[in-house]
Design brief:
alpha/beta; 9-stranded mixed β-sheet; about 35% helix
């Protein structure tokens, strides 16, 4: 498929948010009793950028950050991980970069996300028009960018500009109910984004949400695939079903002892795309993405837990799996 050939150019444009993560330290500590927290980069799109960069690809993030110490922290960490920050806008006033406070534990896991006056929603038409789309192999976005304006309209505008430049659109549904004014608005907008995309990644609940019935998520995935799209339907510990060219690819997972639930989806997508870029078959790439997800949930943090190529290869070589589905 043309999208797989294009991805092999290894330079990705990512739209979405960057934020700061504070996670309780040491592992197993409840946030409300913690005396120490570790800080690093967070935000789904920023995490995807970091994952791609660590796995030997180029990535650039299009977003807005606040003109304060938190925004500067995020830019510095993106640069630390090798992410291109050329298209990041700094915005003053009362807009704020998001903050996530969470724990490295599964039992009674808590995550508190502050997105008051979220600055990443302030990406506008001028920001996406400033991008040199010819420098990239594809455009990636997570669903959060569509939850507010002007970023919703500007992201659809970026879709049009990317298509004019011959870039495929890769869409991680990433439905976060708390970001949206209503479920109906979310369903309508995310369905529109899915229809405009070439590759769609989501879990069973997200596809069910798009379908308007959680029991019809698999049918929704198949309908989208029938339109010539690559659709990856994630099923948690049951692995994934990938629909491509009229075929179904069933893949398992790499079981690990997880210490937290978050970050897996971002790492999966980065590992999947980087593996395709480096010449793996789609099935191999999906399995490598699954291995990346397992690595991230078994280590503290999100961006710092994203594996590099050596870590990923060592994990796959030494770890039992993947499971058979």
């Amino acid at each position: 498929m043309q999208i797989l050939k294009k991805i092999k150019e290894k330079s990705f444009l990512v739209l979405g948010r960057a934020g700061i993560d504070l996670y309780a330290d040491p592992v197993g500590t409840a946030a409300e009793t913690a005396e120490m927290f570790r800080a690093d980069l967070g935000g789904s799109s920023a995490n995807i950028c970091v994952g791609l960069s660590k796995l030997g690809c180029q990535s650039a993030l299009v977003t807005s950050v606040s003109d304060d110490i938190v925004g500067r922290f995020c830019i510095n960490r993106l640069m630390h991980y090798g992410v291109d920050t050329h298209y990041i806008k700094t915005k003053g006033g009362e807009y704020r970069t998001s903050l996530a406070v969470y724990e490295s534990r599964l039992e009674d896991f808590q995550l508190c996300l502050y997105r008051n006056n979220a600055v990443d929603f302030q990406v506008d038409h001028q920001d996406v028009e400033a991008v040199d789309y010819d420098a990239f192999c594809s455009l990636i976005t997570a669903g959060t960018v569509f939850a507010g304006e002007p970023s919703r309209a500007s992201t659809f505008h970026a879709f049009d500009l990317a298509k004019e430049a011959g870039l495929p659109i890769i869409f991680d549904i990433d439905y976060r109910p708390y970001s949206w004014p209503s479920p109906q608005v979310a369903s309508d907008v995310l369905t529109r984004a899915g229809m405009a995309s070439d590759m769609i990644v989501g879990n069973d609940e997200e596809f069910g949400f798009m379908a308007g019935d959680y029991d019809r998520g698999l049918d929704q995935a198949r309908r989208l695939a029938d339109q010539g799209k690559i659709v990856i339907y994630k099923r948690g510990h049951n692995g994934a079903i990938t629909f491509v060219d009229g075929k179904e690819i069933h893949t398992g997972i790499y079981p690990v002892t997880a210490i937290k639930p978050n970050g897996a989806g971002d790492s999966f997508l980065a590992g999947l795309l980087a593996s395709i870029a480096h010449g793996c078959t789609l099935e191999q790439a999906i399995l490598r993405g699954s291995a990346c997800a397992s690595i991230v949930v078994s280590h503290p943090g999100c961006a710092p837990a994203m594996p590099d190529t050596a870590t990923l290869n060592a994990f796959i070589t030494s770890h039992p799996g993947p499971t058979v589905v």
